[in-house]
């Protein structure tokens, strides 16, 4: 990173993604002059510690972004819609993890390894993709570049951290209740999540697909610049604390080979090839928790699709699926001189 000093804010700083972003900002030495943490009124005054630094949480509300250069929104879409326009009006860049602006044609939806040009053509807001989409595309994009993606089918195995801190607590409480032979506490999910799998992530639409499944299709098309891409997915919540996995069956325009596919994955900066089936070497959620890259393995010729490949991807939903991708967007903008303090932009 360069020596620019950016005034940074995290909106939703007490949530799972916000806490990850706080840690990553320090671990990756983002050039901060200041850092402010915002959350709901009930968290105001809470002291959050990161390393040897302490921050006091402030209320997220209109009028607080006057001295902020970039605000990372790690909160729900309704809060983003309520506060992001005010931040932009104050001259603050908004990088948002929610779905609030992902399909807005005026707002770029960016994964920096795929479509960084979106960072050069924003109007104050940059959207982060859905977590399962981000993980899947770390495998699909290099394969698309090699063979030309025509369509893909996906089954996701999504960790409870994608729902938030309460879901993590619920899974842990249910495991403890099972060990002790007690009743299973349940508030977050419609069914017990411990030792179970729930084929519903988000609410159902009139076509029978959930919001998560619809996002995978719509966002894949936008990010990859493939408006005609055909996508069908089934998104499943599983009793894993952290990191999502996706089983993908993809069909391509040009002939494929396992060797060429492995080479494409191995040279892509967003992926790590872990594919030695004879040694039981393949990605798992545990292995790819808190890792920058997403793991790709189980690559094989698909037996039902023409020019098809079957594969498996695991990646950290709180990192590449949320906080890390947002930060990588900001880092790239700093390197390119596109994210500067307001004083510098004003020529002061």
What does this structure look like?
This protein is α/β, with parallel strands linked by helices and 348 residues long. It has two domains: 6-100 and 322-345, Rossmann fold, CATH 3.40.50; 132-317, Dihydrodipicolinate Reductase, domain 2, CATH 3.30.360.10. It contains eight helices and 14 strands. It has helices at residues 16-27, 77-89, 131-147, 165-180, 211-224, 258-266, 319-335, 342-345; strands spanning 6-11, 32-39, 47-50, 53-56, 58-59, 70-73, 93-96, 125-127, 149-158, 230-237, 244-252, 271-273, 294-301, 308-315. It has a six-stranded parallel sheet with strand order 5-2-1-6-7-8, sandwiched between helices. The chain has a six-stranded mixed sheet with strand order 10-9-11-14-13-12. A hairpin with a 6-residue loop joins strand 13 and strand 14 (308-315). The protein is globular, with a radius of gyration of 20 Å.
- Count of alpha and pi helical runs: 8
Radius of gyration: 20 Å
The SS-based structural class is alpha/beta
Strand content: 15-25%
From N to C, what is the helix and strand string?
Answer: EHEEEEEHEEHEHHEEHEEEHH
Write the layout of secondary structure elements.
Blueprint: E1 6-11, H1 16-27, E2 32-39, E3 47-50, E4 53-56, E5 58-59, E6 70-73, H2 77-89, E7 93-96, E8 125-127, H3 131-147, E9 149-158, H4 165-180, H5 211-224, E10 230-237, E11 244-252, H6 258-266, E12 271-273, E13 294-301, E14 308-315, H7 319-335, H8 342-345
Helix pairs in contact: 1-7, 3-5, 3-6
């Amino acid at each position: 990173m360069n020596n620019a000093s950016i005034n940074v804010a995290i909106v939703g700083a007490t949530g799972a993604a916000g806490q990850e972003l706080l840690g990553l900002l320090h671990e990756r030495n983002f050039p901060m002059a200041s850092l402010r943490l915002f959350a709901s009124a009930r968290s105001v005054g809470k002291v959050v510690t990161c390393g040897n630094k302490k921050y006091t949480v402030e209320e997220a509300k209109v009028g607080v972004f006057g001295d902020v250069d970039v605000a990372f929104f790690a909160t729900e879409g309704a809060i983003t819609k309520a506060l992001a326009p005010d931040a932009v009006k104050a001259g603050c860049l908004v990088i948002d993890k929610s779905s609030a602006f992902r399909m807005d044609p005026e707002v770029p939806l960016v994964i920096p390894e795929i479509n960084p040009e979106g960072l050069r053509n924003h109007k104050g807001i940059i959207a982060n993709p859905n977590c399962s989409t981000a993980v899947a595309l770390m495998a699909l994009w290099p394969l698309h570049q090699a063979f030309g993606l025509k369509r893909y089918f996906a089954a996701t195995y999504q960790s409870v951290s994608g729902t938030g801190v309460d879901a993590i607590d619920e899974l842990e409480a249910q495991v403890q209740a099972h060990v002790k032979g007690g009743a299973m506490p349940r508030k977050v999910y419609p069914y017990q999540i411990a030792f179970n799998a729930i084929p519903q992530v988000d609410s159902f639409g009139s076509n029978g697909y959930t919001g998560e499944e619809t996002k995978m299709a719509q966002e894949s098309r936008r990010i990859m610049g493939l408006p005609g891409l055909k996508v069908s997915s089934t998104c499943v919540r599983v009793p894993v604390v952290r990191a999502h996995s996706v089983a993908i069956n993809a069909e391509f325009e040009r002939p494929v080979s396992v060797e060429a596919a492995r080479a494409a994955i191995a040279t892509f900066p967003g992926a790590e090839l872990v594919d030695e089936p004879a040694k039981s070497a393949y990605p798992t959620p545990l292995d790819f928790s808190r890792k920058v890259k997403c793991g790709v393995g189980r690559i094989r010729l698909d037996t039902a699709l023409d020019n098809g490949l079957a594969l498996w991807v695991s990646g950290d939903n709180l990192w590449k699926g949320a906080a890390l991708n947002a930060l990588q967007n900001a880092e790239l903008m700093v390197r390119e001189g596109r994210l500067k303090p307001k004083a510098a932009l004003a020529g002061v």
